[in-house]
Amino acid sequence: MVLSNLRFIGTIVLLLSFIKAPIAQEVLPVGVSFFPPFKYMEDGKHVGSDTEIVVGVLSQMGYKVEISAHPWKRIQAEALAGKYALIYTLTKNKEREQYFYFSNPVSVIRDVFFKRSDRTIHWNTLDDLQSLIVSASEGYNYDDSFNLAARNGRFKVNWVLGEQPESTHLKLLQAGRVDVAICEVNVCQFLIRSRPEEFNKIDYINQSIGPVRTFHVGFYKEWPGSGKMVEQFNKTLGEFISAGKRDEILKRYGVELQP
Fold this sequence. Notes:
Blueprint: H1 2-17, E1 26-32, E2 40-42, E3 45-47, H2 49-60, E4 63-69, H3 72-80, E5 86-90, H4 94-97, E6 100-102, E7 107-109, E8 111-116, E9 133-137, H5 144-151, E10 156-160, H6 165-174, E11 180-184, H7 185-194, E12 202-205, E13 213-220, H8 226-242, H9 245-252
Parallel strand pairs: 1-4, 1-5, 9-10, 9-11
Antiparallel strand pairs: 2-3, 5-13, 6-13, 7-13, 8-11, 8-12
């Protein structure tokens, strides 16, 4: 009887040895700065078109995401200090490419000038703005043509800092304290739709400032395995796009799908 019980117990132990324990998802620390409707918070949750795309792709890769949100300059500084495996979403420039591997494009953005709807303002070149006050976000990676014109004093710039500078731009416009504000078209349109009573006197000039640009995920080069991670991200993002998941998310948030 004892021998029989021992054999039974041995059989159970052998069977259990073939059952694999569930693999815990690796938690990735991720940095983001708010840029609605691409990335923002609602009801205490991180939401937005780019947030859903990035988190969706990383989840398909088997990662669990831990998001920290701060103003852009802080996020970039903390990323370079090794706090995050990746940050999202950002445009490319040579300085950033020294420190980050860039994913394939997640979404597209274009900057335009917003203005008060009771003013008629036209421009063909940035020199046409020389008599105007332009509101712009400190640290934002605008097109080189705008950055050069601003540095050379071809128009007066009111530089804005803070967590949500786009809201400040619209407030300044509504109050008549600036003439135009450079803003990503989806972002400021989203704010106007969300707060119609506050921003009821604002529209925009439908002329892009520089070419349409792309938003990417930046993988910190010093993070272990970041090179392979971005390769896997790109592969999974391609599958995500082919399945129509990205376009469905962009449409739901009212984001332009293409130039």
